[in-house]
Amino acid sequence: MRLGVKFDDSAEGRESIQGGLMVTGVVEGKVWDPGAVEVRAPSRVLRWIKDRERLLVPAAALIVFLLAWQLAATFGLINQLFFASPSGVVSSGYHLVQTAQFWSDFRVSAFEFVVGYGLGLVSGLTAGFALGWFWRLRFIFRPWVDALNSIPGIALVPLVLIWFGLGFSSKIALIFLITFPVVVVNMYTATSSINPQYLRVGRSFGCSKFRLLRTIVFPSIAPFAFAAARIGVGRGVSGVVVGEYFAASSGLAYRLLQYGHDRQTGLLLFDALFITAVALGAFRVVSMVEKRVLHWRHVGSHSAFGADNT
Amino acid sequence: MQTLTISDVTMIYERPRTHERFRAIDRVSMTIEKSSFVSIVGPSGCGKSTLLAIVDGLIQPSSGSVHIDGRPITAPGPDRAMVFQEASLLPWFTTVQNCAYGLECQGIPRKEAQQRAMPLLEMVGLKGFEHCYPGELSIGMQQRANVARALAVDPDVLLMDEPFASLDAQTRELMQSELLRIWDQTQKTVLFITHQLDEAIYLSDRVLVMSGRPGHIIDDVVIPIERPRSLDIKRTPEFAAIEQRLWDDLRSEIESEVAPATSADVRS
Fold first, then answer.
1. Each residue of B137-150: pLDDT tens digit?
2. Which fold has domain A95-309?
3. A201 chain-B contacts, CB cut-off 8 A
4. Using the beta-carbon criterion (under 8 Å), do B88 and A211 form an inter-chain contact?
């Protein structure tokens, strides 16, 4: 008798409790039917869990962590003055979201972010493309953009305050200065790495300059534009926080300083989590828009994520 | 069109940093008749692709000219279409949108262009895949779409730059016989570049052999095998004799390109 091991790659095979591994054998020339072996089918509950593994495992880990945190706080292992318990955070948050001040802070920060980020993104995309496309512009401006990109946002604060004072415009300017360079760098890199073969195709069929831009250049750099938009969100939020730390009297990030000063760690943690959640939300919005606009990237086995066509 | 004439085309390139000049193509001339299938074979880097790009109008030669029916070629035009080596379908367009691309470049409205492209997709065997993205097609299918795209603009001359180079051996053979079927149906003039001698002989009426750099024509072989040709003719003695002749032409060219290592090189 010869035994062999085979992998059953069908959907059924992979889902079976052996994970698709089949043992086959030949007994004196006859094929051994593995179906004759008795197999215990997995229970419905186990099946359900396995299907949602990806979500359930992190969720379970989170619950364990929160529980441990709560217990540590309740039994005095953590000084609640320095670190609020989950229940403290939740109750502080619950009261906070019912205040008018919280929502007016939210509006202030949101306004700063949307305007600063929007300006930074749109002008960054335009300027980045121009730098990538026109080599003379690139030679002139690239060092400046690279320098601006390397400066930490905080270093810009004193200058921005002098130029723009303490009102909205200084925050917006700061967010703009933090978001703009990273978008530009992304875009000029993208524009200078357009697949030349696609450009040849366009030229070979005699397309006009305008059509070349519309059908070959812009679709090529679109994925980079979305990547830049995502990175810009992070930078923009950072800009909001930095701006409000130094030059504000309201806004969600300003309150972080205030709660910290007053040792109200419950409010502090809640505020920080809220800001994070909003940032993640903005991130998700960008991703969702990308999935719709760039639907062609998400199809097929030979999907366009390879090195030659990022 | 009646004749494509390439006269004394020379291409001199200058290296960007050293400004050293080198001759890629040296006085290449040929006359190609309507509806003939002509292949060019030659070692790597001998300027075959450059020649094709010159015929397509993408590059201007340093000297010499290309004429179609007496009219000089200076830019890409609707009478010529290129099939590139990699499929180079635009990944953000569906198959039918890609095939209609050449027509849209000529100003034909989208709907009409796609209507014209559909039967061509069927002809190259891609029926049912019109609305897939290139990412969903295999390389062989992408190349078929590539051919359909070139055919869609109804060119007089089809310029094919090693279109089957990235395919595996079996798909390649299949595509060769498919191409002959399509050529038989459309009667286009084809200028075909390849490394594979058997491919050149199987497909063409005439095979031109190009030397290594600087590339010039060193042989012009008429293929007397009758059409229609099945893939079996590749294993006939007649076929082998022609292949031998081409190989002999190329052997010295290839050997001089791949300089044999001397014992001095090995020791250092």
1. 988 899 999 999 99
2. MetI-like fold (1.10.3720)
3. 84, 88, 90, 101
4. no
Instruction: State the ipTM, two decimals.
Output: 0.85
How is residue A299 annotated by DSSP? -
User: Is the pLDDT assigned to residue A23 strictly greater than 50?
Assistant: yes
Q: Are B10 and B177 in contact (CB under 8 A)?
A: no
Q: Please check whether residue B7 is in contact with residue B66, taking contact to mean a CB–CB distance below 8 angstroms.
A: yes
Contact at CB, A219 and B90, closer than 8 angstroms = yes
Task: Name the residue of chain A whose CA is nearest to B151's CA.
Answer: A205
- The dihedral through the CA atoms of A202, A205, A209, A212 has a sign that is negative
Q: Dihedral of CA B185/B190/B193/B195: which sign?
A: positive
Cα dihedral A154/A155/A157/A162 (nearest 10): 170
Token pair belonging to A120: 């930074």
A30 — phi, psi (to 5°)?
-95, 140
Stated pTM of the model: 0.77
Question: Which chain A residue shows the shortest CA-CA distance from B100?
Answer: A205
According to the model, what pLDDT value does residue A28 have? 56
The pLDDT tens digits of the residues spanning A184-234 come to 999 999 998 999 999 999 999 988 999 999 999 999 999 999 999 999 999
Which residues lie closer than 8 Å to B122 by C-beta, 6 or more apart?
A: none
Distance between CA atoms of A115 and A203, rounded to whole angstroms?
39
How many of the other CB atoms lie within 10 Å of CB of A266?
A: 22
Residue B187, class by beta-carbon neighbours within 10 Å (0-12 exposed, 13-18 middle, 19+ buried)?
exposed
Number of separate helices (H) and strands (E) present in chain A: 13, 3
pLDDT confidence tier of residue B214, bands split at 50, 70 and 90: confident
Q: How far is CA A173 from CA A51, A108, A247, A257, in A?
A: 48, 15, 12, 21
CA distance A294 to chain B (A): 8
Give yes or no for a contact between B25 and B47, defined as CB atoms under 8 angstroms apart: yes
Helices and strands, counts by H and E, chain B = 9, 10
Search chain A and give the residue with CA nearest B104. Answer: A207
Burial bucket for residue A302 (CB in 10 Å: 0-12, 13-18, 19+): middle
DSSP secondary structure letter of residue A42 = P
